[in-house]
């Protein structure tokens, strides 16, 4: 897949970990949001360019460039998301330029959220958010098929219960 | 004073027992405990049924609101009133009448609220019911108790009243506040709560005596004053003062100074806050855990049971370096849910202390650092002032000097059998300590520059609070290994951790 496996990526690839990828539909969903947000602005700028002066079209060009860049970025970022269920903890990895890898022990899970916004639902996606007693735990997996999200939620809940300690 | 903690079902309700029979029970109490107790106070524990707060509560609450109104009036409303061009006596009548009406309304409301508030403590939980329009029933599990604070506000002290706050780790607004109780009663309830939370079961009729405490550190007032003056705030004051002088000399005008007034007031308030909260600070050790007592106007007695400290930070402002003073903050799960200033107030376990005092406080907060042969203080000291590989620390590599030219030699970590130590800061030195079993989750981060230099940062996630342990700019391989090993260590330490009810093993 898209992740480059250069030497610098190695710390984010612990040995013996099978990474699960998120659904490629996440890219489509994010691009939809992107276009839905910037598209009308570009159109307004174009309209004004025709109506008033041509140089307003530059704004439309700038917006188009931004959208193009984001479009490309989303295509690179989505395959960079990954998660792996190990025996005692869950790994979540994301980011290309700014990479992060979060390790959440099952015994530390306080609760698990499954969320889906209108766009997500349209594309058949859901987001799983893990919560520990720390607000610093930034572990969320976007772009899961709802069935997989539900399976993950139940599995995490069951494992969390079996391994629950106090704080 | 006899007790029913742990035997809630068997105790005789006080309102059933004739008053005459209750008297001998009081005689059986050790004199020093009985001396401070009113007959009313003993019912709290002999009666497992519902209790009310002190009847003076509505008056105190009403006064609080009126005081706030007075302040607002003094700051803003007065100008408007004076512009109304009414005769003086009318003005006075309006102000006094308005305040009186406000006082009456809040007093009546508070009285109704007081009527509808009750609490109950049994062996497993604290129950409280409150609310006038929106009723709330809350039950807090005692084995989840994170800390118990006894707060005595200025006005409460006049009436001999205190507020009891029970911190449970449920996020914002999760604390239980019993405001207000008679001071002796509050202490009795606190002792009983801690005993019950510790898992100590008392036989019926046996008094719950306060766990003995041993004073460990007391912060002298002159040192507190001096340390406040030597803090970073002073640097701010000096900068502002120099700026003022320069402005006056250059422009020859004094008018710009008026604009500084809010800033100066803010600084004065910050100084006052430090002094007010740190006043008479004392740290003590008891079987119930860490005991803190401090405060000038509002006195606060905190009890943090063993194992409730999630992480600890030792830090040193620049100007304290010469005198070798240190400050210690902790993360305790319940305190994180408090509002900003409140949280900042209760998470300090040592506002200023020498290295020797630091060692003594550390010995209570984290009794076993797992340093084996080495003395814990040596390890901590090398973390406080060391650089490079001093004291067995794993430092950030030389490549990181390009990202942090000032303090790259200070970035580093050390792992002992029981805790993780993260060292950082050259100008503002600090050392974070996290017991392995308290690690919530871990993260590895790498930005584009770090990636080019082959570096990565590791963060340990702790409960909300002033301490957020992180080691920046480690060699990428070292960071990845640390992440993997620390996950295993945390798991092993959790499995071996003591019970939530910290005395339960002995009984």
Structural write-up:
The complex is a heterodimer of chains A (167) and B (507). Chain A is built from four helices and seven strands. Chain A is an alpha+beta fold and 167 residues long. By secondary structure, chain B is α+β, with helices and mostly antiparallel strands. Chain B has four domains: 129 residues, PH-domain like (Roll); 59 residues; 59 residues, no CATH class; 190 residues, no CATH class. In chain B, a hairpin with a 5-residue loop joins β2 and β3. In chain B, α3 packs parallel to α7, α4 packs antiparallel against α5 and α8 packs antiparallel against α10. The radius of gyration of chain B is 27 Å and the shape is globular. Classes of the chains: A alpha+beta (167), B alpha+beta (507). At the A-B interface, β4 of A face β18, α14, β19 and α15 of B.
Topology:
The complex is a heterodimer of chains A (167) and B (507).
Chain A: E1 20-21, H1 25-51, H2 57-80, E2 82-85, E3 89-94, E4 99-105, E5 111-115, H3 118-122, E6 126-131, E7 139-144, H4 146-162
Antiparallel strand pairs in A: 1-2, 2-3, 3-4, 5-6, 6-7
Helix pairs in contact in A: 1-2
Chain B: H1 19-27, H2 31-35, H3 39-46, H4 57-83, H5 88-115, E1 118-121, E2 125-130, E3 136-141, E4 145-152, H6 154-159, E5 161-168, E6 176-182, H7 183-198, E7 214-218, H8 221-229, H9 232-251, H10 261-278, E8 282-286, E9 289-294, E10 299-304, E11 309-316, E12 326-332, H11 340-346, E13 348-353, H12 355-365, H13 376-385, E14 394-395, E15 412-415, E16 419-424, E17 429-435, E18 441-446, H14 448-453, E19 455-461, E20 470-475, H15 476-495
Antiparallel strand pairs in B: 1-2, 2-3, 4-5, 4-10, 5-6, 7-8, 8-9, 9-10, 11-12, 11-17, 12-13, 14-15, 15-16, 16-17, 18-19, 19-20
Helix pairs in contact in B: 3-7, 4-5, 8-10
């Amino acid at each position: 897949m898209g992740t480059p496996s250069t030497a610098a990526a190695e710390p984010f690839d612990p040995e013996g970990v099978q990474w699960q990828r998120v659904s490629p539909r996440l890219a489509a969903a994010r691009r939809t949001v992107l276009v839905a947000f910037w598209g009308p602005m570009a159109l307004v700028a174009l309209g004004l360019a025709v109506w008033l002066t041509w140089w307003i079209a530059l704004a439309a060009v700038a917006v188009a460039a931004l959208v193009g860049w984001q479009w490309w970025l989303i295509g690179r970022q989505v395959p960079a998301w990954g998660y792996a269920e190990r025996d005692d903890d869950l790994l979540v990895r994301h980011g290309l330029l700014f990479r992060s890898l979060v390790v959440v022990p099952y015994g530390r899970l306080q609760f698990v959220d499954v969320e889906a916004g209108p766009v997500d639902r349209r594309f058949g996606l859901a987001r799983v958010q893990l919560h520990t007693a720390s607000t610093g735990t930034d572990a969320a997996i976007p772009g899961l098929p709802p069935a997989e999200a539900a399976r993950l939620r139940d599995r995490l809940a069951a494992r969390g219960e079996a391994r629950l300690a106090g704080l | 004073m006899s007790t029913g903690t742990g035997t809630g079902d068997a105790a005789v309700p006080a309102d059933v027992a004739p008053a005459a029979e209750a008297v001998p029970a009081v005689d059986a109490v050790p004199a020093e405990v009985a001396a401070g107790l009113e007959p009313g106070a003993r019912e709290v524990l002999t009666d497992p049924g519902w209790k009310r707060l002190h009847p003076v509560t509505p008056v105190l609450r009403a006064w609080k609101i009126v005081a706030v109104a007075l302040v607002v009036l003094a700051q803003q409303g007065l100008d408007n009133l004076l512009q109304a061009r009414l005769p003086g006596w009318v003005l006075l009548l309006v102000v006094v009448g308005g305040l009186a009406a406000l006082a009456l309304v809040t007093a009546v409301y508070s009285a109704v609220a007081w009527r509808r508030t009750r609490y109950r403590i049994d062996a497993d939980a604290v129950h409280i019911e409150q609310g006038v329009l929106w009723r709330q029933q809350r039950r807090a599990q005692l084995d989840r108790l994170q800390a118990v604070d006894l707060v005595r506000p200025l006005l409460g002290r006049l009436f001999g009243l205190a507020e009891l706050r029970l911190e449970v780790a449920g996020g914002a607004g999760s604390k239980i506040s019993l405001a207000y109780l008679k001071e002796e009663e509050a202490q009795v309830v606190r002792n009983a709560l801690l005993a019950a939370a510790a898992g100590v079961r008392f036989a019926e009729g046996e008094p719950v005596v306060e766990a003995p405490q041993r004073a460990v550190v007391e912060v002298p007032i002159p040192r507190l004053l001096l340390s406040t003056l030597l803090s970073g705030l002073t640097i701010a004051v000096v900068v502002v003062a120099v700026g003022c002088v320069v402005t006056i000399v250059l422009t020859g005008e004094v008018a710009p100074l008026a604009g500084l007034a809010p800033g100066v007031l803010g600084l004065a308030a910050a100084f006052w806050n430090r002094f007010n909260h740190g006043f008479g600070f004392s740290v003590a050790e008891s079987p119930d855990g860490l005991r803190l007592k401090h405060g000038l106007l509002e006195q606060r007695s905190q009890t943090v049971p063993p194992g409730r400290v999630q992480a600890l930070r030792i830090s040193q402002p620049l100007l304290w370096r010469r005198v070798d003073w240190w400050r210690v903050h902790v993360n305790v799960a319940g305190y994180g849910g408090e509002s900003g200033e409140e949280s900042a107030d209760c998470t300090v376990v040592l506002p200023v202390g020498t290295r020797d005092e630091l060692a003594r406080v550390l010995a209570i907060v984290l009794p076993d650092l797992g340093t084996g042969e080495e003395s814990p203080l040596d390890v901590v000291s090398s973390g406080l002032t060391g650089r490079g590989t001093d004291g067995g620390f794993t430092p950030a590599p030389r490549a990181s000097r390009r990202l942090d030219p000032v303090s790259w030699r200070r970035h580093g970590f050390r792992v002992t059998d029981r805790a993780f130590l993260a060292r950082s800061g050259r100008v503002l030195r600090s050392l974070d300590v996290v017991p392995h079993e308290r690690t919530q989750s871990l993260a590895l981060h790498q930005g584009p520059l770090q990636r080019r230099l082959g570096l990565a940062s590791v963060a340990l996630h702790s409960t909300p609070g002033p301490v957020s342990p992180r080691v920046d700019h480690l060699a990428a391989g070292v960071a990845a290994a640390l992440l993997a090993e620390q996950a295993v260590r945390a798991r092993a330490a959790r499995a071996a951790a003591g019970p939530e009810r910290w005395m339960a093993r002995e009984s």
